[in-house]
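Structure representation.

___
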Amino acid sequence: MPTSVTKQIGKQPSSGPSKDPFPLLSTLPAEPPKQLDGHVMLFKGVARPRLDNLFLPEGNLNLAAIGSTPPPGDFSKSFKGLYFTKDCAVAHEYALWVHFIHDGNVFPVEILHVAVPQSLTASIKQLYGDEWKKWVWACRRDDQLIPDDLVYIEEFQWLVGGICHSSNEQISRMSSLENLSEWKLAHNETTSQFYASNTAIIRLLNQHYIEKIWRTTVRVD
């Protein structure tokens, strides 16, 4: 993976006793780990300017700064949630794409590595096959509502499934959800995304992510 310049970020621990059940910043590896006990590793390719407001002036994490562009998105019809992936290669490819299109300008891009406590990923729904197509179709088209038989999906804090290959404009011209397809990498590898779907889970993530984030700069040749 052509990346470099790793930064470990987060609020520095205080000198007093801590009741935080998660490891202090000083106990974490300087390089982003492939795995961390008790956590799920997630990744996000992002343009560097969007990271400027990742922390608020008082030091609190502000994940809204890297929230999705205004909806609709694959899994978000009206809520500006958070999209990640479990595959660093997917985050890398997305970062390269963002490098060329962010606000019509070219910016440095990074991969955000985040260790999410497993306890925060208990409420999860996997979307695939026809169910994935129906959900993406309903979310990405203004003329569609969430089908009654899929409303229950809104109860989950995390949605996981493939990344749609088409833009909103392309989907708006489609005649059927059967035309939807998943984006794949160069060697036909499938892709997937983790979507944090409501304010409750994002608030919890802001509280527990803070000492378990790494930023890796992506080389763009």
The CA atoms of residues 141 and 169 lie 9 Å apart. The radius of gyration is 18 Å. The chain has four helices and eight strands. Residues 1-6, 10-27 have pLDDT under 50 and may be disordered.
